[in-house]
């Protein structure tokens, strides 16, 4: 009999690829063989960005399939592996949004597990969709019937219906459809999975795990915490030169700004944000993707880069885990993606929250109102977050010791959960033993 062989598969979005890749690398260290399946739109990006990282490029079998629902192609991939490899596929480990992979594995008699890349509260919420419809809180299409605050269980934090993961803040009908479709698929996957894993901890969401005890936290799943040293599953080449720049800055002096892989600004908000960074008169490291704003070369305020000079460094993509663990970082402007939040919290970095869509709204609520490690912003009547609002919240965050103290306290608890003997560590090791049965 060969090694346990896990086929990992996820949706082609950076925030989903990274945690599953991190988990896959960690499983390899414990004697599990991994074949990682990406949609074509993500596969080449991952391969190119991983080319210089031997632990990824040499230890995982990377396979691509066409984008979209491809259950028959996935079955073919599994069939070919099982026909030619001594180590046959023994488990399919999937993003919960790929319910068709769970269905294909069930048809083939293969064990199934899901990894939730967002807050476990999101899975609990998705499992409640039929009850939410029955109670008239949402319609059949997932749209809230009115703006209200609810609790999924007596112990869980209150949640605004406008912050449900599938409620789109855009006018895009496709986005509205896909977000709710993704939620329904997650619910389907939960019913098919033998194991449900979460990139979270009991510390962060105790009530969610109490509400559904079958969801097992194994996080935070970070390269730094598990010793791989490199961010796994990245789409773009990191500009590591920023680390030398950070070395030259004072301890806890730098504002780090990064809004993820998909967020965009319009030119008005972009200029307003740039002027806020100038007004703050603090050193900053700002990640600005080429597609972050339309006509990027013309987007900056006139003379901005000359005025801020060496005080500000603007790059297209950062080695975020290494940046956030750097002693010069004071705080993190973030879109509140779950991975970014975990990377900040594991390093005790307080946050300034600028959520855009989906689960980011809920993460914002946890960061600001439950964990109390960050602050959000108020928009003006036109929907703009003004430079004075940005400057004031930054000064409030850095001018009070409580946010940093809360972040350091949470950091200690998170590290305890992933160290040997901790709750996340134990859940992970139990999963490894299950794979080896």
From TrEMBL:
SUPFAM superfamilies reported for this sequence: UDP-Glycosyltransferase/glycogen phosphorylase
Iron-sulfur is among the record's keywords: no
Entries under InterPro entries matching the protein: UDP_glucos_trans, UDP_glycos_trans_CS
Alphabetized UniProt keyword annotations: Glycosyltransferase, Transferase
CDD domains listed in its UniProt record: GT1_Gtf-like (cd03784)
EC number(s) stated in the UniProt entry for this protein: 2.4.1.-
Top-level EC class: transferase
Family: Belongs to the UDP-glycosyltransferase family.
Protein's name according to its UniProt entry: Glycosyltransferase
Organism this protein belongs to: Xanthoceras sorbifolium
């Amino acid at each position: 009999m060969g090694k346990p062989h896990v086929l990992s598969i996820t949706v082609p979005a950076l925030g989903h690829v990274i945690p599953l890749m991190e988990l896959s690398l960690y499983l390899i260290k414990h004697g599990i063989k991994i074949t990682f399946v990406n949609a074509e739109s993500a596969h080449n990006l991952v391969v190119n960005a991983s080319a210089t990282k031997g632990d990824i490029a040499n230890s995982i079998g990377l396979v691509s399939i066409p984008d979209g629902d491809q259950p028959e192609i996935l079955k073919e991939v599994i069939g070919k592996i099982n026909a030619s490899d001594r180590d046959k596929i023994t488990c399919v480990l999937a993003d919960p949004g790929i319910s068709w992979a769970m269905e294909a594995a069930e048809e083939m008699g293969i064990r199934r597990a899901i990894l939730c890349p967002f807050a476990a509260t999101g899975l609990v919420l998705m499992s409640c969709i039929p009850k939410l419809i029955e109670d008239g809180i949402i319609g059949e299409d997932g749209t809230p019937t009115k703006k209200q605050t609810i609790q999924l269980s007596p112990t869980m934090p209150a949640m605004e219906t406008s912050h449900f993961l599938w409620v789109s803040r855009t006018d895009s009908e496709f986005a509205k459809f896909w977000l709710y479709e993704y939620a329904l698929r997650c619910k389907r996957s939960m019913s098919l999975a033998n194991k449900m894993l979460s990139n979270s901890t009991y510390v962060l969401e105790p009530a969610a795990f109490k509400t559904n005890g079958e969801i097992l936290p194994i996080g935070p799943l970070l390269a730094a915490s598990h010793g791989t040293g490199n961010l796994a599953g990245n789409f773009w080449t990191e500009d590591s030169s920023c680390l030398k720049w950070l070395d030259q800055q004072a301890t806890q002096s730098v504002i780090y700004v990064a809004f993820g892989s998909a967020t965009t600004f319009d030119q008005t908000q972009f200029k307003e944000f740039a002027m806020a960074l100038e007004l703050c008169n603090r050193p900053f490291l700002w990640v600005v993707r080429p597609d972050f704003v339309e006509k990027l070369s013309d987007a900056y305020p006139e003379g901005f880069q000359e005025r801020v000079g060496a005080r500000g460094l603007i790059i297209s993509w950062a080695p975020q885990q290494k940046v956030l663990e750097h002693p010069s970082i004071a705080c993190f402007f973030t879109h509140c993606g779950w991975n970014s939040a975990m990377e900040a919290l594991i390093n005790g970095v307080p946050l300034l929250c600028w959520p855009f869509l989906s689960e980011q709204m809920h993460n914002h609520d946890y960061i600001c109102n439950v964990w109390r490690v960050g602050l959000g912003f108020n928009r003006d009547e036109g929907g703009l977050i003004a430079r004075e609002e940005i400057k004031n919240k930054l000064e409030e965050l850095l001018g009070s010791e409580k946010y940093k103290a809360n972040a350091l306290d949470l950091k200690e608890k998170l590290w305890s959960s992933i160290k040997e003997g901790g709750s996340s560590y134990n859940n992970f090791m139990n999963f490894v033993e299950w794979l080896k049965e």
